[in-house]
């Protein structure tokens, strides 16, 4: 309706464009996706083959606030329909684990067409809270940006100027700070295999999330079709195996790794295997309980076929090109003998820095997280994808700046073990996410029963793992760029 109104208000240029499109119409061909074609309705007595007057009511499930185990609408005697129909809508409906059926109950009301969405919008949290969330996130970003700008424009600039002015060996012995560790800062990390696998999977998740949210923000993924978002994410993840293999192989080669076969297999199987195993156990519980949310065995086989038939081969292709590339060149050489790290203060030790690093990124997302959890567990519709995409961008900036800030402090304290620390600093946000999910479970939900509790925390762990890989990858590459940049502009003998 809004599109037609906007078109009616358009000017002469739009009319000329429409006329041109009508002239080209015989030369064009178009089609609707299965189950997504619009349905036309007309007044009673004016029905045609493509226009019907009866609006059928379909239902999906029966559930309760005390359980996460939904059941089919006709699973009980009092909900039976003699003329049962089961229309097939789209793949998203199947992935979401729901089947829709006809309902024996009809409701007559006099709701006007222009007010048809009011009952949904009135049940949604007010958008003022969303704006508060955005302003809260922007304040955190401005604070971090100011800190980073002060370090880069003032402190770091002075450091580089002072280091480059030192020529004599006597003065060089008086050096201190991050320049002293130039011979160790690019020393390959321990367990570089695992780190490279995490980075490959994190890259895959990052690209998948960015494209999915961008399409949702543009309106391609309707909030009314809850399965469309999941379908888009799964399909994109399957098709993005190549970037995962490439990043993992290239970083593993940069870490001077030689077990390339193990690296490729772990990239293709480790994290997806953990997610699938968790998901299979959750689905098994739903099968045992007879819940309608249980995904059929055939759909699980189809997902496995997509994983091993498409994603794994694409990961091998990406790894092939990654290992063919040269390792990433570092701006300074690495000494053969590791430098001893001096005694660190409490705030420059690994664990306190990692714990502090996840607080600010979590502060940017916790309000949006509340609405997302409401959408998943309290059956509320989430439709503000514009807000979510903006918070997503703010999260990227916050993770990057917080990690760079802490990395600089640690390098100034002559601690050059930054590889894993940069990953864990931003990925610790996932730990706060899990703590918040536990708080949400006990304070907002009324779930009872062992099976429902296991399901809640099982699905939450999947979300935490995905968030762990995503945020860790963002922090790592931001820090990697920062460290490479500062050591490339300083003169080293």
Account of the protein in words:
This protein has a domain at 126-186 and 333-493. Helix content is 62%, strand content 4%. It is built from 17 helices and 6 strands. It has a two-stranded parallel sheet. Strands 3-6 form a two-stranded antiparallel ribbon. The longest helix has 39 residues, at 127-165. The termini are far apart. Residues 1-28 and 167-174 have low confidence and may be disordered.
Secondary-structure element series? HHEEEEEHEHHHHHHHHHHHHHH
Main beta sheet: strand number and arrangement? 2 strands, parallel
- Count the DSSP helices: 17
Distance between the termini: 70 Å
Secondary structure tally: strands? 6
Q: What are the low-pLDDT stretches, counting only 5+ consecutive residues below 50?
A: 1-28, 167-174
Shape: elongated
Strands, helices and their partners?
Elements: H1 2-8, H2 12-24, E1 40-41, E2 51-52, E3 58-59, E4 61-64, E5 67-72, H3 91-95, E6 101-102, H4 118-123, H5 127-165, H6 169-172, H7 192-218, H8 226-239, H9 241-254, H10 260-289, H11 297-324, H12 350-357, H13 359-377, H14 385-412, H15 419-427, H16 429-443, H17 450-488
Parallel strand pairs: 1-2
Antiparallel strand pairs: 3-6, 4-5
Helix pairs in contact: 5-13, 5-14, 7-8, 7-9, 7-10, 7-14, 7-17, 9-10, 9-11, 10-11, 10-17, 12-15, 13-14, 13-16, 14-15, 14-17, 15-17, 16-17
InterPro entries: EMP70 (IPR004240), MFS_trans_sf (IPR036259)
Keywords: Membrane, Signal, Transmembrane, Transmembrane helix
Signal peptide: 1-30
